[in-house]
Amino acid sequence: MSDRTPTQQVSDWLTALGGALDRGDAAAAAALFGDDSYWRDLVTFTWNITTAEGNAKVREMIERAVLPAKPSAWQLEGEGTEAGGVTEGWIRFETGVARGYGHVRLIAGKAWTLLTTMTELKGFEEHKGSTRDKGVEHGVHPDRKTWLEQRQQEDAQLGITTQPYVVIVGGGQGGIALGARLRRLNVPTVIVEKNERPGDSWRKRYKSLCLHDPVWYDHLPFLPFPEHWPVFSPKDKIADWLEMYTKVMELNYWGGTECTSAAYDERNAEWTVEVVRNGRRMTLRPRQLVLATGMSGVPNMPSVPGMETFKGDLHHSSKHPGPDNYTGKKAVVIGSNNSGHDICAALWEAGADVTMVQRSSTHVARSDTLMELLLAGLYSEAAVKAGVTTDKADLIFASVPYKVLPSLHAPAFAEMKKRDAEFYGRLEKVGFRLDFGEDDSGLFLKYLRRGSGYYIDVGASELVADGKIKLKTGVEVDRITERSVVFTDGSELPADLIVFATGYGSMNGWAKQLIGKEVADKVGKCWGLGSGTCNDPGPWEGELRNMWKPTHQEALWFHGGNLHQSRHYSQFLALQLKARMEGIPTPVYGMEPVYHVS
Amino acid sequence: MSDRTPTQQVSDWLTALGGALDRGDAAAAAALFGDDSYWRDLVTFTWNITTAEGNAKVREMIERAVLPAKPSAWQLEGEGTEAGGVTEGWIRFETGVARGYGHVRLIAGKAWTLLTTMTELKGFEEHKGSTRDKGVEHGVHPDRKTWLEQRQQEDAQLGITTQPYVVIVGGGQGGIALGARLRRLNVPTVIVEKNERPGDSWRKRYKSLCLHDPVWYDHLPFLPFPEHWPVFSPKDKIADWLEMYTKVMELNYWGGTECTSAAYDERNAEWTVEVVRNGRRMTLRPRQLVLATGMSGVPNMPSVPGMETFKGDLHHSSKHPGPDNYTGKKAVVIGSNNSGHDICAALWEAGADVTMVQRSSTHVARSDTLMELLLAGLYSEAAVKAGVTTDKADLIFASVPYKVLPSLHAPAFAEMKKRDAEFYGRLEKVGFRLDFGEDDSGLFLKYLRRGSGYYIDVGASELVADGKIKLKTGVEVDRITERSVVFTDGSELPADLIVFATGYGSMNGWAKQLIGKEVADKVGKCWGLGSGTCNDPGPWEGELRNMWKPTHQEALWFHGGNLHQSRHYSQFLALQLKARMEGIPTPVYGMEPVYHVS
Hints:
By secondary structure, chain A is α/β, with parallel strands linked by helices. The first copy, chain A, is built from 19 helices and 24 strands.
């Protein structure tokens, strides 16, 4: 075995896998995987987003999902590579109805991790390059409809004389990315968005806000940012991009449109979605409903005695207008994660007197260090130069099972702790409570498990360490008076402004608001992996709950995540919706039960 | 010599050239060129767009422009190639103030064609990739201005408390492409456009209009169309793209703004540009003025006796609203080139009774055949797959001197004539008068020489051949009555609509309108090569008059052309403007005298 090149090793393995599957021999196929192995499938075989962990589960997936899908044409793309005892390669394959792309890691000739993803449905390939639309019918056509007339007709009819196949509630970057994917697959879709214009959800935020993820991480599908786009997009710049993307991608985007309710009609297998479009009530009847209201669900606004008596401004961070009216005022910000830090820093810059109230520890990671240690290999200029395209980076990231991810990230965050020891020391000196995640696996795992609990430092931490942003730690708010906040330790802070940077509930909170408690409970908590850490109770599920995959409510889906996830997983959600529209059978394997309702 | 590989041949040649230039030995450098040779320089040495033709002129350019620019670092990029006795390669080099890229063709060891183009000015390189702006100042900055605040401030001050360095009159694709280049080079620029929104000049055209050039030819700088963009953009789709592009490229685009006059103030070395911006008169004082009003200058509207008595609709093609009001009406379209054909076809599709009046022969080229025979190697899906990027295609095209181009194109058009013989035969049968250019060099040369005289057939010719579009040939319009057109042969056609698809004057017609006759005559005719063919009188100038290069009016420039030219030549015009803004010396070599005023 060891005299075979990495390329040969991967080819051999694929040949063996293909042969075993051709013969229908699940045992032989499973024998190609180690005891400690993972098969992560994005839609292709399982019509789900799911990871089989361990040889027994892999074998079960092979028997129940892989073989029935009629796999074939397994081949290596390019060369295999080897490093540190792990041989890997990129793979192509097919099923009866689709084409796929993936990645395999071998240890001692057996698979450790296998990723299979669906790239396209046979017969429903996206038109591009040499198959791009001609754009104009050459020749002469009486009664020809121009492009504009077709778009106007579509716009006039949708929701009135014709119904979209999909309605997406929420027109932020998630809804927009998914909308673009569906457009390319010719799935009639309407995106409903409360705000007037695409990008408004960014425009309306506090003025200093910008993306904390660097540009290489943030591209939308099909139309990447140009080479000169800044590393960290200011909010208004990303808003403008979203607005224009929506236009040139020809999305049916209904701004100024609020979804008031939705109900599933089982008999007709369609949703009844009530919206108010610029003041006019309309009923949409899509087959599929996607909630893309944001990874942040309904804002968590604690109920504190005396809140209603407060004479100053009091609001959740999602409603914070920015610092402009608070120069010289006293601001108390409850919460010490991303929003809390951003808002405190902006207030301090504007000359407010700012106190941050930290109720539990925060994982702080400096932006530059995070980029160097965690992102550089995949999402950076250097990565681009080394040939790691955005697509490749997304797939490399997807190829690491969530179970394995902590062991991969822990050393990087240990290095971060060392590198920035002086910085962390100064924070601890003023009493700031730090963590690196419960198992020290760092930021991204915290994000996946609970969607919060961290701050990517872009400058606020210096203000905290210097005492410019004052700090109160280890207390809760006891009550609020007309002009102050009183804490559980008895201390009191006068305040003109109180901001609750207290996070958001699970995304199925929107399902509860729009559809009802029964359906919200039926689908259960969104996000999290079942890691048994704070806000992510077990049992272990191994994938993000309810995201981009079938839920326990027929024809209800959730889309969202950060820009990388929106970009990548919109591909798989769009394919699942397209398959259903075309009547392609989509037998789902590996649905998790609902263990938690929120 | 013949045992050296192509790579070695080009390397050897570059080494010899570099050595001779290092020594200041113009004679030795010129000896590296054949008798029949060309050095085409885009800005780098000559601060002009100019071609030295023949060894003597090459030597003169070396002595007077190349040596003074301190050339150095000549090197081959990649491999040399050889085909049909011609060895070629891509080259890099530097001057004292710039970096360059180019292309050389060698025959028997001596240069036949050399193209040198300026890519960037040292010290003023565009920020991109690893030098892209960070986007946000990390850390804390009291009095920080957000990106939006900076843009708003810029917008509020430009033209009032601060003056742009450049004003571009005309916000079509030319002005927009140039504006984007200047933005990347941090040259404060205002684009003034009469229409409200970017793209309106397309939106307002007749509804069936679409681009006749295929997508690979049409990309704008920095942000190419995505892979699924149709081959031929419908007008409204390109309009939306231009609007999006203008926004995300952060251009200072003043829609609803008409330039009423401009005058050069020699003492202060600035222009006084009067504009009316949404009803408000303003004076701009840029250092540089660019007319990007369109390769089509002021519409040619003949003066025909009786025009004013006509009771139906009468207008130039540029004002034609489309066919919608003319179903069942009698339309007479004067002119048989692109606009004439498009308009006739649209009218016929709408059920009008259409007669096309052909006054002189037209070069008709079928779109598909043109793409296969002329564009496929450079601007096509196949070209992209073969590694010919848009940049490379532009440079390959630029590397062929205009003097040589006819001999390159004539065979392709001879092939077209053969391939489509049956098609041409049917046209001739109904009396349509055809040509392939005066020397049979075809469409692109006709375009370069006179900007018109052809039709890229996308269906109208079938209607002409079938007699559905009626044809009158070889006559002129004698007079117009209340309800008809009378021709020089005495015949008369009743008409409800008369469209003069009679073309446009030279671009300096705009200079005449805005600045005055004296300056318009000083700069002279725009466009054309001096080929001695119809509308392009000699003497031979070898480059397009006045385009993208210094004119005989200080600080006045013309920008335009088709999408390929706008894209490519905006690079060189932007660099010339940037150099002047930064005070870099720009000694111009090879200014042509003005031979024709229009």
